[in-house]
């Protein structure tokens, strides 16, 4: 599958989570986190995760250590790392993330964090 402009696709996304493509060993997902929101603290025992921030500012918390980020920064989360991504800016945080291996069923769309938790 070809995505002509992944950053633009992420900027236009208003869903908390939208799976764009799923392969055998990895998955590309775009996300939108509202002002003051976060993805929720989580750990993937067997999944590496890469975050690229397209728009907005925030903080990444990895195993209790907090680091500030802004657009065009990236964060790599090794499998087994407790992590959270928080929007501390004044606009929706837009990002894409790569899971390796995939973490969600292909085609998954969660409009809100609450919907994703169900």
Structural write-up:
The chain has about 120 residues and is mainly β. It has one domain (about 5-115): Sandwich (Jelly Rolls), CATH 2.60.120. Helices cover about 10% and strands about 40% of the residues. It has helices at about 5-10, 115; strands at about 15-20, 25-35, 50-55, 60, 65-70, 75, 85, 95-100, 110. A hairpin with a 4-residue loop joins strand 1 and strand 2. It is globular, with a radius of gyration of 13 Å. The model has no long low-confidence stretch (mean pLDDT about 95).
- State Rg: 13 Å
Query: What is the CATH architecture descriptor?
Result: Sandwich
- Low-confidence runs of at least 5 consecutive residues: none
Distance N to C terminus: 29 Å
Number of helices: 2
- Give helix % range: 10-25%
Oligomer: single chain
**Shape descriptor:** globular
**CATH level 3 topology:** Jelly Rolls
Task: Classify the beta-strand content into a percent band.
Answer: 35-45%
Which whole number gives the mean pLDDT?
96
User: How would you sum up the major sheet?
Assistant: 6 strands, antiparallel
Strand/helix succession: HEEEEEEEEEH
Strands in their spatial order, largest beta sheet: 6-3-8-2-1-9
Instruction: Count all strands and give the number.
Output: 9
């Amino acid at each position: 599958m070809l995505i002509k402009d992944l950053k633009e696709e992420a900027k236009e996304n208003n869903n908390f989570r939208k799976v764009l493509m799923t392969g055998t060993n990895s998955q590309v997902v775009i996300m939108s986190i509202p002002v003051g929101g976060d993805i929720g603290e989580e750990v993937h025992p067997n999944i590496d995760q890469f975050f690229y921030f397209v728009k907005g500012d925030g903080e990444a918390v990895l195993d209790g250590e907090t680091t500030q980020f802004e657009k065009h920064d990236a964060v790599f989360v090794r499998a087994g790392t407790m992590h959270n991504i928080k929007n501390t800016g004044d606009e929706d945080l837009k990002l894409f993330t790569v899971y390796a291996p995939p973490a969600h069923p292909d085609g998954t769309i969660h409009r809100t964090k609450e919907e994703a938790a169900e």
